[in-house]
Amino acid sequence: GCESPPVFVLLRHEGGHPCPVPRHALSSDAAGGGGGSSSGGMNNTRMQTFAVTVPPGVGPGQQFQASLDGQLTMVIVPHGSGPSSTLHVQIPVRPSTVQKYAVTIPNGVQPGGRFQANLGGQLVWLTCPRNMGPGKQMLVDANPSGTGTGASAKTWPPPIGVPEDLDGKDVPEYFLCPITGCIMRQPAMTPDGVTYDYDAITEWLQNKSTDPSTNQPLSVDQLCPNRTVRSMIEDFIAKGPNFLFS
Predict the structure, then answer these.
(1) Rounded to two decimals, what is the model's pTM?
(2) CA atoms within 13 A on the CB side of 210
(3) Which terminus of the chain has fewer Cβ atoms in its 10 Å neighbourhood, N or C?
(4) Are strands 47-53 and 86-92 parallel, antiparallel or unpaired?
(5) Would you state the pLDDT for residue 147?
(6) Within 13 Å and on the Cβ side, how many CA atoms surround 77?
(7) Which parts of the chain register pLDDT below 50?
């Protein structure tokens, strides 16, 4: 997607707390798969819906970052929307055991460059993702591999805030998490090449130690971002069903 300044916008009610659209937090007992219209999955994924205002200067197809209920989220402006538009986006209720740090990329660090950050008292090396730059925020695993000042931590782009009405449309099957049946917000790939939504596979691995698709041994630290699938999902949200030809 296109780059834009790191703007944080969240609609709030009079009490000053993050305000989900007051319809409800969604849950579903659907078993996943199918045509992409489900809003839950095998693990009864609960969804929160938020009203987010598109900031000035951000147009269709562009992205901005928002803090939704404390979760750093990437919001994509779909075709037909623009500055001052109100978008209704969904994010999953993040399991309390899934912890990541939000890190702001410092000035002078270019895409692909390395810098150090303090994560919970541990100094680690981070690499700036190719599609991000100074002032942007990224997510970092709470438990970096290695120890001491030479440790490296795995970085993740913020999860995507998916438009509320998207789950009711025909979504390509390869955008759906095999566990939840929902469009993936933070695609995470296993060493065997299977892609899941990060929160869903992390929650699965709290009780299991195997990949649910292959039954092969799997741990959270073996997961890595599937940036290719994520980029295609971003284009799908921004451009609609004909995203491959736009």
Answers:
(1) 0.66
(2) 5
(3) C
(4) antiparallel
(5) 43
(6) 23
(7) 1-44, 146-150
